[in-house]
Specification:
Blueprint (H helix, E strand, L loop, with lengths): L3 H15 L3 E7 L12 H8 L8 E3 L2 E5 L8 E6 L4 E6 L9 E9 L3 E9 L5 E10 L2 E4 L16 H9 L5 H5 L10 H11 L12 H20 L41 E5 L2 E5 L8
Antiparallel strand pairs: 1-6, 2-3, 3-4, 4-8, 5-7, 6-7, 8-9, 10-11
Helix pairs in contact: 1-6, 3-6, 5-6
Length: 290
């Protein structure tokens, strides 16, 4: 599933192309792409056509395009990529993409005509037009209100995060994946940050000192920054940027996906264990369970 770096790469790629663009038309080819928009395809199209896009924003794994405000309709086009969703920039007359579910026909004041294609092989992703509401110093879609800010959000509260982690008795990896505590950290980056911090993933969060949690947050930000610089993590063709290119952070992974391989730090074998219908990867020598 795309995590924070992958979605941020998509957002950054979309921003210069969509900011200021007029939505000239919307083509919905598969209603499963609109499961987050309960009013249906006709309403979705009506609320978008003729509107102008202000910018491209993101929190955690949610991406949204705020629309220029009209009287009584302060809204945004919200996207969640699910397991395999892709937002692709294409020429206006480009042929259909494989697994294409929806297409936005845009007119940019500088770049002219272009298309944004939503393609989704596994159909777990979805788009919606959603109302924008205040959330502290920012404005977000209502569908995003339930998740916490992510670690690279300028308004992220480090002290509140340290306190929230230390008040939970569950395993620290579960806390990192809890979107009500911190958003955007998925399985890959949780494993990598815990490896860098030398913390066993099953360590009860309440057993960690404040200094350990601060160090963990530092490593979370470091691994996210490195993943962003390398275009995200791609293991197959399901995650690509807006131009269809894969990220290459998979080559920099120290723990995730390296079960049975030597730990880059100590040389001992990386262990892979079942975790919440997924897997955890860690070094039992470097990340001792205390």
């Amino acid at each position: 599933m795309p995590e924070l770096p992958e979605v941020e790469v998509v957002r950054a790629g979309l921003a210069p192309a969509v900011t200021g663009s007029l939505i000239a038309g919307v083509s919905v080819f598969d209603d499963r792409a609109l499961t987050r928009h309960p009013a249906g395809a006709a309403d979705f199209v009506t609320r978008l056509e003729g509107r102008r896009i202000d910018t491209a924003s993101r929190r955690g794994k949610f991406l949204w395009l705020p629309l220029a405000r009209t009287e009584g309709d302060d809204a945004a086009l919200v996207a969640h990529l699910g397991m395999s969703g892709q937002m692709l920039l294409r020429a206006p007359d480009a042929g259909a993409e494989r697994h294409e579910r929806l297409r936005l026909h845009l007119h940019h004041p500088v770049h002219g005509e272009l298309a944004v294609v939503f393609s989704d092989q596994r159909t777990f992703g979805s788009l919606a037009v959603d109302r924008l509401v205040p959330d502290g110093p920012t404005i977000v879609p209502t569908q995003v209100l339930h998740i916490a800010r992510d670690p690279i959000d300028p308004f992220f509260d480090d002290l509140a995060f340290v306190d929230a982690v230390r008040r939970r008795s569950s395993a620290v990896k579960r806390v990192l994946l809890d979107q009500t505590v911190v958003s955007g950290i998925g399985n890959i980056y949780a494993d990598e940050a815990l490896w860098a911090s030398r913390i066993h993933p099953e360590t009860p969060a309440s057993r960690l000192s404040a200094a350990s949690v601060r160090r963990l947050l530092l490593e979370v930000r470091a691994v996210l920054a490195k993943a962003l610089a390398e275009g995200g993590t791609s293991f197959d063709a399901q995650y690509v940027n807006v131009n269809g290119q894969a990220g290459y952070f998979a080559h920099s992974l120290n723990a995730y996906g390296r079960g049975g391989q030597p730990c880059p730090r100590c040389g001992g074998p990386i262990l892979r264990e079942a975790f919440m219908n997924r897997s955890s990867h860690y070094c039992p020598r470097c990340q001792r369970r205390r």
